Prior knowledge:
Strand content: 35-45%
Largest sheet: 6 strands, mixed
Radius of gyration: 22 Å
Helix content: 25-40%
Number of strands: 10
Oligomer: single chain
Amino acid sequence: MNQSQNWAVCLLGLILLMVFAGLRAQAHPRKEAEIEITFNANTKKTEIVHRYRVADAEQALQKAKGAGLSIMTDPEAQALFGDYVEARISLKHNGKTVPLTLVGGEIADGWLWIYQEADPLPEEGLYVFRHSALMDRYGEQVSIINVRLYDQVQSFILSRTAPWATFRLDGKDTYAD
């Protein structure tokens, strides 16, 4: 092989390495969950809908409870993950815990959906929402919270170092005296 051919082979190898490295980086998406808090006018309940990647949830559950568990096929594993999430979420209104009821869950398109509900949330007062599911397993895990109540949309990003959000629904300043 002459020098030009060596350079061509090296350049092709470098290009292939970059392509495969890029594909590998895309194979492990960002660790994030999404949670929507809304009011359902039909049921007259506040709904809390969680969305987790099945792969992340299953890996965390297997590390905690056993390697053979499958969220995709095992209803007991699904229930265990639901219990895990319930233990890592709380909503307080003016310092008092808002009771949340686990309604159920489902798996669709690679996502694990968990549904909770609560009585309607009062518009007045201060809320603190805490959510730390998967943050104990993945340091880079974040949860994006969207609160869509009383014609307001508020979004928060929770992380291991800040697993809570403080907000109001009445339009007043959250941090005012």
